[in-house]
Amino acid sequence: MAKVKNPILFSTHFGLKPGVMEAAGLIDPFLNVDTQLFIDPTLLEKSLNPIIKDKALSEFRRHFSDFLRLLTISEREGDAAWKAAQRLLDLSEPADNGLGYGGSGRSGSSRPDEIRDTIVRTAKEIVTLGSKDPEMLGLMGFFEENVGPDTISDFTTRVIVDQLSEITENFCLANGIPTSGKDKESKFSLPSFDLGKKKKKYFILVPSDIVRELPISNDPSEIYDAISFNKNLRDKVNSFLAGYEKTTAVERKEAMRKAALESVDLFNSFLKAIKDYSQPYNKEDDSLGYQKIREIFQSDIDSFKVKKKFDLSIGPEKIVELVHETIAAFKHHVEKGNLWETLWANGNPKRERASQLIYFAIADCFCKANNIDISPEANMGGGPVDFKFSQGYEARVLVEMKRSNGTVKHGYEKQLEYYKDAAKTFYGIFVIIDYGDLGSKLLMIQKIRAERIEAGEAASDIVVIDATQKQSASKRN
Predict the structure, then answer these.
(1) Is 105 exposed, middle or buried (0-12, 13-18, 19+ CB in 10 A)?
(2) Who's near 335: CB < 8 A, 6+ residues apart?
(3) What's the pTM value of the predicted model, to 2 decimals?
(4) Would you give the distance in Å from CA 265 to the centre of its chain?
(5) In terms of DSSP bridges, do strands 427-434 and 461-466 run parallel, antiparallel, or are they unpaired?
(6) What are the CA-CA distances from residue 91 to residues 44, 77, 109, 210 (Å)?
(7) What are the CA-CA distances from residue 78 to residues 20, 75, 85, 124, 129 (Å)?
(8) Whole-angstrom Cα distance, residue 427 to residue 24?
(9) Helices first, then strands: H and E counts in the chain
């Protein structure tokens, strides 16, 4: 799991005013935490950044046109042309852009050769079909299960790294951000972050209109929506699904794959439909809450101060008390302020991760504002987020947060207990974000808690936060 502690925003570290990076159309990354957004090559053509739209797109197409040309002339796996194509598909860790599934430090390793070879074989199959569009590489997450969004994002970054570096250097020069000269991998002067022990990390910035929460090629439901506008593709997919009374997501994905690979015309229509449909991460909807957590980290930290003092040396019980205070701060802003608005988009609850990350930001600021020698630690991998507050080896408290429409009973009864066992602690707090559909789930877990207490067992606390839609705070007052 990718563990995250003490996140540092690029803009904060370099003393930029809030909104400067957004005005420049750039992602404001964390220097020591990956943001789970990914560069999608199908968005390069739509970018409003002229360096991306002209130079980066041209470089991407040139690079992968060469790749496809080599596969066209390759007669068998392992021949000279095949090996040359393999070399062009570089899956090693690219320059640091603050995106992906990494955690603190964000160092990574080269992806296995098997993934590279899987992509090469699939590309060869498509080339043999007759398609030569280099942007087909952006669809590999759809055709191959083990090609994740980070793989697509990273090989795209590798190819357009000079253009991203040029954008970064221009922004730094315009805003007085110091650069550390040219590192051995770049001809551009880039900003860097001191990692300690005489090591530093160079960074490249990324335009916000070429990233997505998940590239469309890794989301079959979006693929299905995209091709539904094309009658030929829609009819072909439906013909493969004929006879099914109901279809599963797996069956629909297989039908779409078969339709796309049936002919070069259908594949080219498939690729065009995806490119037309794809859109960058919507900052207004902000489904993952990234805009809000940046706003919190950039806010006046004194607003999180409380009069209460926390003597954590007394033992784990005091850490539990502190953690409840951080949850109470989050609860107050959701229920009494307007933070609930940030947990909804277009009348629907946002993803669970949004509330989790916003709580993490508030808890981190709360601890810093009150000069508490402890910080929340979160796992920020591709799966569920959980939080740990610890001091020394013995004093550890875990927080698990669930949406009311999720697996509340399983989360309380099994998942949190698994995390507690792994962390070797008895202390856990289970937080439910109630969007109005909690129903009987609360009574179920309260009964489990009561039974554990009666049996003399450790029972995790339960906190419910009302995130239902409300009038604005000004109207309520």
Answers:
(1) middle
(2) 465, 466, 467
(3) 0.86
(4) 34
(5) parallel
(6) 19, 19, 9, 19
(7) 50, 9, 10, 13, 20
(8) 45
(9) 20, 12
What DSSP designation does 195 have? E
Residue type, 79: D
Please tell me the distance from the alpha carbon of residue 149 to that of residue 164, in angstroms, as a whole number: 19
**What H or E segment, with its residue span, contains residue 434?**
strand 427-434
Mean pLDDT by 10 residues, the chain (477 residues): 72 92 94 86 96 97 97 96 95 84 49 88 95 93 87 93 96 94 72 80 94 81 88 90 78 89 94 92 88 89 88 83 94 94 91 88 91 73 68 78 93 91 87 95 96 93 95 60
Question: 441-469 b/e with 16+ CB inside 10 Å = b?
Answer: bbeebeebbeeeeeeeeebbbbbebbbbe
State which amino acid sits at residue 97. N
Count CB-CB contacts under 10 A for residue 217.
26
Cβ pair 404, 441 in contact under 8 A: yes
